[in-house]
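My current task is to audit a protein record that another person submitted. My question to you is simply how this chain folds and whether the tokens agree. This is what I was given:
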Amino acid sequence: MKHAEIAVIGGGPAGLMAALAAAEMGAKVTLVDRNSRLGGQLVKQTHKFFGSEKEYASIRGIDIGRILATEVHKNPNIETMLNSTVVAYYPDDGVLGIEVEEKKWVKMKAERIVVATGASEKYLLFENNDLPGIYGAGAVQTLMNEHGVVPGKNVLMVGAGNIGLIVSYQLMQAGVNVKAIIDAAPSIGGYWVHASKVARLGVPILTSYTVKAAYPNEMTGALERAVIWRVDDRWQPVPGTEKVFNVDVMCIAVGLSPLAELLWQAGCKMMYVPELGGHVPVRNDNMETTVSGIYVAGDVAGVEEASSAMMEGRLAGLSAAKSLGYDDGTYEEKKAEALKELENLRSGPVGGKIRKGLAQLAS
């Protein structure tokens, strides 16, 4: 049995900021992550961030990950457990079950827990959606930005949100031909600054279109052709509107779902909020769930941008430490700053969907 004052589950942007914030207040933190290095999705994000200086604006995601990971490893109040997956929460005694390096089982009793487990990619149902050559956007980013491997020569991108637009541009930078970007929604979901970059390079962005089917090469069995068709205002396919693309890669970027299994196990009250990606935990403005001592931050609390995840992580870490009595008199000021940063990030028309989703949690 291992003991921790504060256990932070997940070493992505939210978890890193939560650990640093709690340690800053004087708490002892154990940061648990299933990967071999810290950073989460930041390790594959080569684009520059928006926001303010506090969210590392104009710095590339990969560099933000390195900065935060270095700060964590240098902090004497933070212990890291890498290659360690939290797979269970025992609500009777509040103990975490952790598989370490696929070799041993460790139980951890933490006085406070910050769940920052992120999200998983959503998928689409269509004929032959399991062919080799059909990837999630995260897998494509991993291949290219971590391993330097292009997934193929000709790509159909499915999804015109920020992820789809950013990955399309990264594919083009790597010399891959992006034949089109499609989205079932009637308008582009991502920032126009991302959409304009690929549009200027001649990539068509087709809204109100979805995938009808994928077809394999007879010799290799891998993707060779994709067929799309238009959907009407009720999201129903319109026969006779099919378009065919000869592609060896289809990249699916149709959103994320919060990885909330541990929260379900813990008995946290959950609510289905489509604007936030699916089932998310009900929590207060300290990011504490309905189960006392369990806090959340990042995509597991509602799918947003990494900048918001970092601020939520900071808020959760500060609040968890404060609840244990760690406060040098700066907590209220630091909390107010984090809340103000979140408000700024969610302002304007782009943040309208997030504000609508959060309003449902508050009602």
Q: What stands out?
A: The chain has a mean pLDDT of 94. Residues 308 and 342 are 6 Å apart (CA to CA).
